[in-house]
Amino acid sequence: FFLYFNTQKRFILIPLHLHPFMKDISNFYSLLESPKKIVITMHQKPDGDAMGSGLALYHFLQKNGHQSVVISPNDFPEFLAWMPASESVLVYENDRAKTSKILQEAELIFTLDFNALHRTGEMEKVLNQLKVPFVMIDHHQSPDSYATVTYSDTQFGSTCEMVYNFISFLGGKNQIDQTIATCIYTGILTDSGSFRFPKTTGNTHRIVAELIDL
Q1: Per-residue pLDDT averaged across 66-89, rounded?
Q2: Using CB atoms within 10 A as the burial measure, which of 84, 98, 145, 188 is most buried?
């Protein structure tokens, strides 16, 4: 059984076979039980949700002793350059040799806010050659099957909300500080159209309230 946080903000026990991601999460702990070289990447022309989810996960993994690097396929918009640790984001198109080497040396790859490797543009060629585990966290339809661990759910309005859940699934909710909260809030805000879009739920607002408190 796995402890699952549902939309009514109640903790309930659900058999693992009832949720595809829960079958994966039971195997995921072993991937993070020791420090690893981890790359986090997102789709081309990253928006607030892609950058927010990537940087939130970056800060969380750093807190837990992992050597994490965020690699964007191309330049991200200048208006997102204020985000915590945005200056550390590497851009594949600006230094293909350096970023390719980092990808090839990685022990684990997180792909956020996209579900098909072609969404990374030229970087797809490098990603397709890697033999390490991939973890997909995404809310778009029809995910490809490249990932070892897939957390894909179209009911969510943003990947950042899913990253919040992902951190909670791993027992790390108490590690969400002001920096991580800022990154997650940015993605939820932008991808929800400032909370106007239909996939904004009561649980979205409950998460946002917790982030604001931080």
Answers
A1: 97
A2: 188
